[in-house]
């Protein structure tokens, strides 16, 4: 029997790996950038204390504040282990889901007291495509971690009900998990609701249940009140919602439909996507909202009926249904969110639906084993194939949003991202069409306006770029990136003081934005303030050691000072992060010529030419390096190539070529 159990778990582990190995290496996508990749607070565990005190640590965008200190700590730990290598971050998500499956198995085993039923439910939960989406999308870590803590806390709660001798131990433990869940995501408030469902609907042999109810209920009340007080102190309000694009009442009415919309997604998961569309409802009496309201009343009536009756199977069904409703309540009825529906909001409630399905499948299994096994097998195969397909799509951001455009073509966030992707692929005029449409649908959103500014900047239409960056700042005065880009336009226009003001404002609202410090340093260098420039470049590298452009700029600064050893060190660092940039290789060639190492200079000049063979200045420095090594014929050949690619407007290089030709061909 023991061997059979071990073989079963081994098969599950192999199936789990086979299903999800295509998640790797993965990448950062969408909200991952502002909350993870560009979030400089995550690079040091020394910021742990700040995670608990400053909600702006959640994002590189100071206004996208959220209070999730335990989540941020998990991110910071990932950075310490993996750096910005995305495969490691995906591994953490995958491991969290794997442990969630094991915990769910234990919960099912306690409820059904049958291993077959527990296996049925765990398999559905483990391989459902909604789970796969949460592994692929790093930003879903909050939901994965929340479920882990809620499941662990629920097991401790059930153990507390059952076990009188170790009652204080389990009591302390489930309260600790509850606190950690609250500090992971505000939706952690669902934990007492799930426990209450278990207390009243599930039959456990523990003693003194009335006393235990009071022991459970009172601490939970105080913990929730304490948590709400912290939110009030940090946000100035309990239900803080950043930039909600619709009235709260419209949000509430629309979200009534979400309970049944999510049920449809669980039943037909081929529509999983990074974004979805859910039509807004302006009135409770619109058909969709009204039917959903009536449906919810009927579901609550069923819960009441199950509570009043003593039938075990009915109560188990009611527990899972109640769990589904309770877990969706924070994002569908209580906390107003920008995004109406998403897989990350569904994952914490998925176990409830899987539990309902488990009840049905187990009932069928006891009567018709073979047909039930075939049916379950087909479902799991379909889940497996869909997870494989989605894992492939998640490897490329273009495919992620191409698929999103299929399911949510009228979603402004999807339109904005699709426009950005088109712009990055070179289809800038086409991108303007989608970005403009996104702006029309959601005029209060700064992202579409910001991306329009970027596109017009790339097209060289600085007037329009300036207009949209100013609009983005008007919509969100704390948009540091828009200020950085506007400063760049001012710098190109020669308005250095305006550029300096914008960059200083960007640093004021986002002191952790390394690029702002780098650009301010570059501006100071152009203004002749090398001392201030060096400080800003160094600050940029303190915030983001991998910022190659800051290393490059420091290299230029030290080269101009004649401090060639420092210049070499920073140019080489810059090359590590951007080996395809020929300017870095070219600067290394220049410095090696300055320190009389022409052999090294020739090597780096050739590297620059391997990237861009028409780079006239690289041919010039190659000729200089060859001359210094006594390779006169090769130097003359390189000089001829430099002249062949010389721009007529580059008079400085022409003069340098003429001077070198005289040295190679003395009278």
Q: Any chance you could write out the topology, listing elements then pairs?
A:
Elements: H1 2-20, H2 31-37, H3 48-51, H4 69-82, H5 86-112, H6 115-127, H7 129-136, H8 141-162, H9 167-182, H10 190-201, H11 209-235, H12 248-255, H13 258-267, H14 287-308, H15 312-334, H16 343-365, H17 369-393, H18 397-407, H19 412-424, H20 428-441, H21 446-458, H22 462-475, H23 480-492, H24 496-509, H25 514-526, H26 530-543, H27 548-561, H28 564-577, H29 582-594, H30 598-611, H31 616-628, H32 632-644, H33 651-664
Helix pairs in contact: 4-5, 5-6, 5-7, 5-8, 6-16, 6-17, 7-16, 7-17, 8-9, 8-10, 8-16, 9-11, 10-15, 12-15, 14-15, 15-16, 18-19, 19-20, 19-21, 20-21, 21-22, 22-23, 23-24, 23-25, 24-25, 25-26, 25-27, 26-27, 27-28, 28-29, 29-30, 29-31, 30-31, 31-32, 31-33, 32-33
Label this structure with key terms.
74% helix; mainly alpha; 667 residues; 2 domains; elongated; Serine Threonine Protein Phosphatase 5, Tetratricopeptide repeat
């Amino acid at each position: 029997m023991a061997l059979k159990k071990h073989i079963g778990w081994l098969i599950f582990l192999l199936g789990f790996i086979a299903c999800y190995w295509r998640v790797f290496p993965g990448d950062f996508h969408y909200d991952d950038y502002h909350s993870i990749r560009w979030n400089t607070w995550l690079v040091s565990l020394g910021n742990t204390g700040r995670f608990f005190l400053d909600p702006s640590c959640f994002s590189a965008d100071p206004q996208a504040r959220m209070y999730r200190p335990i989540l941020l700590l998990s991110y910071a730990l990932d950075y310490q282990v993996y750096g910005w290598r995305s495969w490691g971050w995906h591994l953490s998500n995958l491991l969290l889901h794997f442990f969630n499956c094991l915990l769910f198995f234990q919960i099912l085993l306690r409820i059904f007291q049958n291993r077959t039923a527990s296996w049925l439910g765990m398999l559905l939960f483990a391989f459902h495509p909604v789970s796969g989406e949460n592994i692929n999308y790093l930003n879903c870590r909050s939901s994965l971690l929340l479920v882990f803590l809620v499941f662990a806390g629920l097991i401790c709660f059930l153990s507390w009900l059952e076990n009188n001798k170790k009652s204080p131990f389990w009591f302390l433990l489930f309260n600790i998990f509850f606190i950690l869940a609250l500090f992971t995501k505000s939706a952690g408030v669902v934990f007492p609701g799930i426990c209450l469902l278990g207390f009243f609907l599930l039959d456990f042999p523990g003693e003194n249940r009335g006393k235990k109810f009071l022991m459970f209920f009172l601490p939970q009340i105080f913990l929730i009140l304490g948590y709400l007080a912290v939110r009030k102190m940090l946000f100035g309000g309990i239900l803080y919602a950043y930039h909600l694009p619709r009235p709260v009442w419209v949000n509430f009415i629309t979200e009534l439909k979400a309970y049944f919309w999510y049920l449809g997604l669980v039943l037909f998961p081929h529509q999983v996507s990074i974004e979805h569309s859910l039509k807004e409802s302006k009135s409770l009496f619109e058909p969709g909202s009204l039917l959903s309201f009536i449906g919810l009343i009927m579901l609550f009536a069923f819960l009441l009926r199950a509570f009043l009756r003593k039938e075990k199977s009915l109560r188990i069904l009611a527990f899972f249904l109640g769990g589904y409703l309770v877990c969706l309540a924070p994002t569908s009825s209580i906390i107003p969110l920008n995004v109406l529906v998403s897989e990350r909001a569904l994952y914490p409630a998925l176990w409830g639906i899987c539990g309902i399905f488990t009840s049905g499948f187990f009932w069928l299994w006891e009567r018709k084993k073979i047909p039930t096994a075939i049916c379950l097998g087909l479902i799991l195969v379909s889940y497996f194939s869909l997870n494989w397909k989605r894992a492939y799509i998640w490897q490329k951001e273009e495919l992620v949003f191409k698929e999103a455009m299929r399911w949510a073509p009228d979603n402004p966030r999807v339109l904005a991202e699709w426009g950005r992707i088109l712009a990055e692929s070179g289809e800038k005029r086409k991108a303007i069409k989608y970005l403009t449409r996104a702006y029309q649908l959601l005029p209060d959103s700064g992202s579409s306006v910001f991306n329009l500014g970027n596109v017009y900047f790339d097209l060289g239409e600085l007037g329009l770029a300036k207009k949209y960056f100013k609009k983005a700042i008007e919509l969100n005065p704390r948009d540091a990136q828009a200020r950085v880009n506007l400063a760049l336009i001012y710098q190109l226009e020669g308005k250095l003081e305006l550029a300096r003001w914008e960059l200083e404002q960007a640093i004021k609202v986002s002191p952790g934005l390394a690029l702002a410090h780098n650009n301010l340093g570059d501006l100071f260098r152009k203004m002749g303030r090398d001392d201030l420039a060096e400080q800003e470049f160094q600050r940029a590298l303190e915030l983001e050691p991998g910022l190659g452009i800051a290393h490059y700029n420091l290299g230029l600064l030290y080269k101009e000072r004649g401090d060639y050893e420092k210049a070499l060190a920073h140019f080489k660092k810059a090359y590590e992060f951007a080996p395809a940039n020929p300017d870095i290789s070219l600067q290394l060639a220049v410095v090696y010529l300055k320190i009389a190492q022409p052999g090294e200079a020739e090597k780096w000049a050739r590297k620059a030419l391997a990237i861009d063979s028409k780079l006239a200045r690289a041919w010039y420095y190659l000729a200089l390096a060859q001359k210094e090594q006594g390779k006169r014929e090769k130097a003359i050949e390189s000089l001829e190539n430099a002249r062949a690619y010389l721009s007529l407007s580059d008079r400085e290089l022409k003069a340098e070529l003429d001077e070198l030709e005289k040295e190679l061909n003395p009278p």
